[in-house]
Design goal:
alpha+beta; 12 helices; DUF8083
């Protein structure tokens, strides 16, 4: 299956990932991570995961859930140390199913997620829940745009990998150390709490900071633009979000409004694609 065909078959999706040292995972998680390691490169791994998702959705049985056997492990090596981000398909599919069941009309939800399939998948989730330790979800996914709160974790000058395929920007990946990412998040939370406590961004950043605090200080954080990259790159969103927060902290409403207008002009058209026919 071609890369272009895979992209055409999925909504625009982006991911925020935390990569941890192998020692930060339980023995059971380490085994799944090792099973998910592959000799293929990141681009091929991303494509294989997307193709696997499409195959599940297209099953004649109507069961879209992963069976727990296929795992995909991504890794980053920095300063001679390798850190890992497991796909955690079973747990993430369970959370996605809960979201569909609580937001979609009941008749539609029952078609998308047949009750027998949900029951089988819940058994897989329950088995993972019985393992020692509290499972952490290392990946957050966003459809049809990137939450502004994610951009807070990254600054201009952070390591950036622009991946091009077939004259397209296939994705852009920005990485930062856990220490830098959480420091930036806490700085933004502190300033917004004083300058704009009513903003939704403050709530999002508070939740994001609490999530980051679950991980090892030796972790790396990655923003993967995914298929949205081709529509926005080169992208100044991390700089615009930072400028907006700094302007709010300084009482510069004009500067903050200008930063928001730049963000809105870039991202609102993409978010509107979710409702396009």
């Amino acid at each position: 299956m071609s890369a272009r065909r895979v992209r055409a078959g999925r909504p625009l999706a982006s991911q925020l990932r935390v990569y941890e040292p192998l020692s930060a995972f339980t023995a059971e998680e380490q085994e799944r991570i090792r099973r998910g390691l592959s000799e293929q490169g990141r681009n091929e791994l991303d494509r294989a995961e997307a193709e696997d998702a499409l195959r599940r959705i297209a099953r004649q049985s109507g069961d879209p859930f992963p069976d727990g056997r296929a795992e995909f492990t991504r890794s980053i090596t920095a300063d001679g140390k390798t850190v890992y981000c497991p796909s955690q398909l079973v747990l993430r599919s369970g959370l996605a199913a809960e979201s569909v069941l609580t937001t979609a009309p009941a008749p539609l939800a029952s078609v998308l997620l047949p009750e027998t399939a949900r029951a089988r998948h819940q058994e897989r989730v329950d088995r993972l829940a019985e393992e020692p330790g509290t499972p952490r979800i290392n990946t957050r996914e966003s459809l049809w745009g990137i939450p502004f709160s994610w951009f807070v974790l990254f600054h201009e000058g952070d390591p950036t990998d622009v991946v091009e395929e077939d004259d397209h920007v296939a994705t852009v990946r920005i990485t930062a150390t856990w220490a830098k990412a959480i420091s930036r998040a806490r700085f933004a939370v502190a300033n917004l709490a004083l300058a704009a406590p009513e903003m939704n961004l403050l709530d999002e950043l508070t939740t994001l900071t609490e999530w980051l605090e679950e991980f090892s200080p030796d972790s790396m954080v990655e923003l993967d633009y995914g298929s949205v990259a081709d529509r926005v790159f080169p992208d100044d969103s991390p700089t615009d979000v930072l400028l907006g927060i700094e302007c709010l902290a300084e009482g510069d409403m004009t500067g903050a409004a200008a930063a928001y207008r730049r963000l809105a002009s870039r991202w609102i058209p993409i978010r509107q694609l979710a409702r396009a026919s």
